[in-house]
Amino acid sequence: MISVSEFFTNFPEPFVKALVTEMKIKFVSIKQLLIYLCFCVTVFASSGAAVAKVTKIEFTEFDTYSLEIIHIDVGDTVEWLPTNEGHNVEFIMTPTMVSLPEKSKIDEPYSMIFQEAGIYVYGCTPHLNTGMLGLIVVGNDFHNIEDIDKIKLSLVANSVLKRLAKKAKSQFKSD
Ligand SMILES: [Cu+2]
């Protein structure tokens, strides 16, 4: 019989070395796994694919919207800010056209989440016919672009709409 201390002193050195090496490898692989997980979390958090965005549009002193055309994804939000007096937001065309959203009150902020892909057209109630209009493309979907031709406004407003539709199409992103 050998004592415990004798057992450890007589422990074959190559075996101890192998054991230590194995432990080191395990430690390194756990460390690598943690680094990899951190990397995955960072990539997921910064990808923005699943994160809804908010686009802010101002009422300008020139009776226009600060952004006439915007491209957003389904689920994104648009906020209109009453940065100049005498304007609002009234939808005149949506992809479904089943029920148009309630128009906003003059000089009040307005916000909407876009759940339906397609083209949305809105304008400012007092300035619809002078061409204070805006176009929103949701999800790169142009299926209802032809409906713009059915909108009956003044000649000026209709030519503004035509310009916006043409420009929106030219900005079409295939990605
Ligand atoms: Cu206006």
Concise summary:
This protein is of the alpha/beta class and 175 residues long. It is built from three helices and seven strands; from the N terminus they run H-H-E-E-E-E-E-E-E-H. Copper (II) ion binds next to loops.
Quick one: CATH class of the largest domain? Mainly Beta
Shape: elongated
- CATH level-3 fold name of the largest domain: Immunoglobulin-like
Overall residue-averaged pLDDT value = 84
Detail the poorly predicted runs. Answer: none
Give me the CATH architecture of the largest domain, please.
Sandwich
Structural class by sheet pairing and helices: alpha/beta
Largest sheet: 4 strands, mixed
CATH superfamily of the largest domain: Cupredoxins -  blue copper proteins
Task: Walk me through this protein's architecture.
- The chain is an alpha/beta fold and 175 residues long.
- It folds into two domains: 4-46; 54-174, Cupredoxins -  blue copper proteins (Immunoglobulin-like, Sandwich), CATH 2.60.40.
- Helices cover 33% and strands 19% of the residues.
- The protein is built from three helices and seven strands.
- It has helices at 4-9, 13-47, 155-170, and strands at residues 54-58, 69-72, 77-81, 90-93, 110-113, 118-123, 133-138.
- It has a four-stranded mixed sheet, covered by helices on one side. The chain has a three-stranded mixed sheet with strand order 1-3-5, with no helix packed on it.
- It is elongated, with a radius of gyration of 31 Å.
- The model has no long low-confidence stretch (mean pLDDT 84).
- Bound molecules: copper (II) ion.
- Copper (II) ion is lined by residues 63, 86-87, 124, 126-127, 132.
